[in-house]
Amino acid sequence: MILPCRIHRIRSHIDSLPFALLFAAFLLIPHNDAMGQYGGGGSASGAAGEESVPFEITTGLDLGYDDHVIGSNPSTSSSSPSSFFAKENLVLTYNRPGEQTEVRLLAVGRFTQFFDAGTEDKDLSVTAAFTHNFTTRLSFRADIHGAYETEPNFQSNIGPTNVRAPHFVTNDIFSLTYHWLPRLSSVTSYTFERIKYESSSASTSAIAVAQDRFQNTLAERLQYSLTSRTSLTGEYRYEVIDYDTASSRDATIHFVLAGLEHHLTEYLVINVLGGPSFRFFKNDGSTINPYAEVKVLYRGGNHSLSWTTSYGVEQPSQTLAAGATTLRSGLNLTYDLTSRIKLNSTASYHHEENQAGGTGAAAANTSTSTQDSLNLTLGLKYIIDKHFTAHVDYEFTNESGGGGASSGGTSGFSRNRYSAGFTYTY
Q: Distance between CA 13 and CA 48 in Å, rounded?
């Protein structure tokens, strides 16, 4: 099997073509569920007798205070300044469900200015989902996400979580599902991921050298419905990791996984998947590591809860590490307190044990440092009318670990962000 060959070498700036495409998509593409406080949904269900309009535009303004505005240098993250800030938001949504080809699009643009810290963030993201049913047995789905952002990402294995550094990331999944028998189906998928940090300063250039990479994954999943409530799963993944500059981290990984999905009740679903992963480094050496993931989803009448936890070896966030054994967990709760007041809360935690760099299995299994990150958010939204909403939000971040700045580690910090604002949906 031949996968895409190594692509490009590192440049001193963001790849122009993907960023240009992302910017064009933001300006031209429509989009529906506008994340948290932006999800109006009013256009998706018109009044009786009216034709539903799938396109929606939401604008907003937030004012707030950040007691620890981290920068792009990890050595100064523990002594960052505080600042008041203003954030402008623009959200475009488009939703066309219930057809042979279903389309859901979401484009979000944000501009944040920190008045006392003398810095600003420009963030842009586009998320799209396309589903096409060729026949009753065969269907195709594409999930595309691209973002240019500054703040660290606590939900995914993208880069260091102790710095604010502009970067482009895309994660795109293309899958083909075929139902062979009433109880047996297969899913063939391809995942493309690109991470590219902007090299605008010495500190961000160092992050780019350590993190810029391509990841390509081919997967085949078989699912058998054992009962009306339980399905058994077998999955194989073949992943190729290709760094722009840090070629000593280049590797191929084989995953052999098995699991099950069980509906405990009509509202509660649990999904378990696990097995060994076989990692082969380009510069010789290999490791065998366990991999596991657990997903729990609960949907009630006016609330929902999702919990996802994974354990395995991820790409390291520290400069001198070859890999990172990581426990990553995320929790999301939404609750409609009344018809007008809605609550949303998230919790993200990951524990990372970085492994020493070098070649060979012995070096790859030597622990160099540990790092813990915790991110909590709490938001309340009040629907004033079909156009206006008001919201208040709180975010807490705590970072602790070792390794020192020279190896990309962090001396630790805590951060609180408070904000309030309004949104208007056209």
A: 52
